Fold these 2 entries.
Entry 1:
Amino acid sequence: MTSISQLRTAVVIGSTRTVRLGRGVAEWVAADPNPDLDLEVVDLAEMDLPLLDEPEPPAWGNYAHETTRAWSAVIGGFDAFVLVTPEYNHSTSAALKNALDHLYAEWADKAVAFVGYGIEGGTRAVEHLRAICSELAMAGVGPQVSLRLGDDLPDGRCAPREAQVAARGRMLAALARWGGALRPLRSTPELLGDETRPALERPELRPHAAAAVDQLVADLQAGLDGADADRYDASFAADVLWGSPYGVTLTGTDDLLPVHRSLMAARAAPPSRFEVVELRAPLPGIAIAHVRRQALDETGEGFSEMALYVLVEREGRWWLAAGQNTPIAAPSR
Ligand SMILES: Cc1cc2nc3c(=O)[nH]c(=O)nc-3n(C[C@H](O)[C@H](O)[C@H](O)COP(=O)(O)O)c2cc1C
């Protein structure tokens, strides 16, 4: 059973062939008694991942395919990894590279160790993997295991020499150290309710969320400038929840759009400038923003308000799910 302090560690079998050495090697790795790691074999062959066909870059975390979501749930649940790779033509397997390419945030800020095997120990495969993992923001530990087919995998059996058992121990000890050190960078469910509060922001999602908020602000600005309520409301979801500055809750565009139309027709708001003050991107497809709207009158003391907006991405388009407007009596900077 995993203890709270153990790192949940996936030992990923990098070979998907029906007849393979990879499973035996992964099981040998997972048999190490390291007390700081809860080692679990993960078999790529059971995940049935197709060749990568996600419409959006995986770093955005917005997965279209059920197979990717299932893989994301598996990998997202681990704190650290041991990648067990065969050497195919002086590199890692296409299956492992494909599996790595499918995700991003689920790998990032986690420690990774490498076990290579092949005629000469699989070291060239591991070198390539190290470069790939570094691009995925993983921390690759130095000590590694290199199993030679003739010496450590005789007759298709996984029976590594004594020195390899020691190398496995050194590698996993390094993985436990780095995996533990990286804990504060990850907001995992186990941190909830512990002394540490999780920071929900996921930096890799921020650029995508920021572009969505910029688009919303551009619509609001153009709508107000042109007294065009349809442009102003262009990205409001049908069931948008809207808190007015006067304590009224409006539910849905049927309630909200007539109000905006009449305010626009009356040119109730003076010329104003919208500006994004802060942003949070806690999950794929969710953006939360604080947006200031400041009147452009000469005194600078005209109508201004702060709005909290929640945007949700649905099938590649962002929608305003909720907004709350708070008037500010005087500009506060
Ligand atoms: C497509 C292919 C390419 C290979 N290329 C290499 C290689 O470059 N270097 C090496 O040491 N072994 C190479 N081998 C031999 C593998 O190390 C050996 O077949 C091993 O069992 C593969 O791991 P697996 O059984 O878990 O798939 C290759 C094997 C295959 C199938």
Entry 2:
Amino acid sequence: MSVSDNSILLIGESGVGKTHYGAQLLNRLMNGAGKLRMDGAATNLQPFESAMGRLNEGRTADHTPTTTYIDSLWPISDENGTKAELVWPDYGGEQIKTMSSTRQIPTAWRDRVLDAPAWLLLIRLQQTRMSEDIFTRPLSGITGASIDNREVQISDQARLIELLQMLIYIRSESTTKPLVSPRLGVLLSCWDELGTDELRRPPAKVLESRLPMFSSFIHSLWSEPLVLGLSALGRALTPNNSDTDYVVQGPEHFGYVVLPNGDHTPDLTQPIQSLLAASAPKVAG
Ligand SMILES: Nc1nc2c(ncn2[C@@H]2O[C@H](COP(=O)(O)OP(=O)(O)OP(=O)(O)O)[C@@H](O)[C@H]2O)c(=O)[nH]1
Ligand SMILES: [Mg+2]
């Protein structure tokens, strides 16, 4: 089994929650209460350890510097004793936005895109804007509007689609048939920020109503894209004011994943387990 069989390319712009998810996931893996647990010595833990330290104090961690890229190696095993080595990155999310805006993919990222059997895309819905178009306004309103001197900006969902198209292109994947590799997981992060009417809805439905074009894009390319919700922290924290519940109970008691049917599970390893199970069925113990 090569390491890359089990690497997950974590894709997320700045501020979507990559570092906090990494820290909470690491905590869960070390606690061993979920489907996956740490099974050996992990390396390159520094960015996540410092975030875990902050969470233990009930506070949030810092933004990852733009140029940072660190692969952390986590030997893990599941309930049946099946072993794998998970490669979990932490990086400054601007790297992703720069790839979209310049339409250029640095060599290091190209190799990651080519090697990874699974892509996990983090989207924070509160951070995405729905631009005004025929999906949000009646056609009559749009056709009457003056187009002179109007700054044209690509919508957030169009940018995400373009990003995936670029990544698929450099992998030379044919899109005439549903994509089997890489397997795609979409994690709607900071789920606790959604309105109360959406909190218990199936994540795929929420994605469909919030980013309809993006949702239909991934469902047209992948036959079974995994769409889950994630609240790595369970609630909003701040950098300076300590959350007493966090300090008293410990960060491991907070955070949940929203399953395809809308149920919540405290097992933050669930998305990884689903992606690894689907993309590396040949993994032997
Ligand atoms: N409410 C809520 N906020 C969260 C959650 N996870 C992360 N956040 C907040 O989102 C902000 C960004 O999270 P990070 O983990 O730093 O995001 P990142 O993707 O690593 O961002 P960069 O390092 O800039 O690439 C932080 O201020 C966190 O407080 C969550 O589950 N719920
Ligand atoms: Mg970060």
